[in-house]
Records
---
Amino acid sequence: MKTYFTSQENSIVQQLRQLKKDQQKDAKALFSFQQALHDTIFPRIMEATTAKKAWNTLKEEFQGYVKVHAVKLQTLRKDFENIKLKDSETTQNYYAKIKEIVNQLRAYGAKY
């Protein structure tokens, strides 16, 4: 026996099919996140039920909020401008300090 749907019912059936496809894509994306992360980072997104939640958790964790980000950049710039070679310090240690500050600045998007 054939079942005939009205156009509204067809629309609902199509929406349900699309929803199922979207849920499958989301599950695949979440699985990819979980597989790609190091064991030390994975627990941070373990409770995420969607890829979007996992992404937002990671984004907040590693980038921080805009204000925190700006404050970190400002602090790093100040550190960079005020760094001086101490009498008891080797040039290698001094260079390592500069390199670390510059790398942190780059991680936050600054160009040095």
Note: The mean pLDDT is 87.
---
Amino acid sequence: MKSLVEANRHWPFKRSYEFSEGVKLELGTRTLIMGILNTTPDSFSDGGRYDEIDAAVKHAQAMAEAGADIIDIGGESTRPGSDSVSLEEEIRRVVPTIQAIRRALPDMSISIDTYKAETARQALEAGAHIINDIWGLKGDPQMASVAAEYGCPVILSHNRHARDYSDLVPDVLADLKGSIALAHQAGVRDEAIWLDPGIGFAKNYEENLSVMRNLDQLIGLGYPVLLGISRKRFIQNTLQLPAGDVAFGTAAANTLGIAQGCQIIRVHDVLEMKQNAKMADAIVYYKDVHR
């Protein structure tokens, strides 16, 4: 891991996005907070809590009040061992929720957490602004074209079907470069690409820790990086605590990511992680963050 001064050379990737109906997002002035909203009955941490529209909207409003910059809406659990969801069911879960949240929070940026191109398309038509693809455009051959057609930011996460690494960190970087190439081939603009190391996906405990120690290498690829480690199993295993009791461990891991140059953190506990990020920004980037 590089020193803070060396890591800071990569910070920030300053980008401004203006979405439909005047929604704006500024990247590069502080760590952005992406709040997690699962409209699923079986997600590992909050399954079944927000699968009704009224509950989902109230939770989105609470996250906005706590300081979320983006609400990430997903309709299919990605926990290990979870059952796949049909396209029709995923769309049924997410599209009405997106529409309701757009009405309740017209200034909020919304991302759709899906690897299915048609879900992404319908979500964007319903008012989402960002695609968050855990398969890095490799799960559906049409996803890159949808991202290019709508000109929206797309988050390319690292994932594999098997942990067949020859050299973990270089392999992760190579896989992400493959996703970037797919994006470019489809016409996705470079400034619309964000990366995610895919912590918890196709990696065991030691491999997750190794990728966390080497996030600066991912930052070095030259794209904004989102870190999504909230309540994940490697934190639970380290602390020997259940998912709902690992906020302090999540904050520690987020701080390490911010110190290495990650610019967006995806979290369940928005209020606590907003404070975490604000303090980390003040220390790492030597700046006044009173805002």
Note: Residues 4-284 form a domain with the TIM Barrel fold (CATH 3.20.20.20).
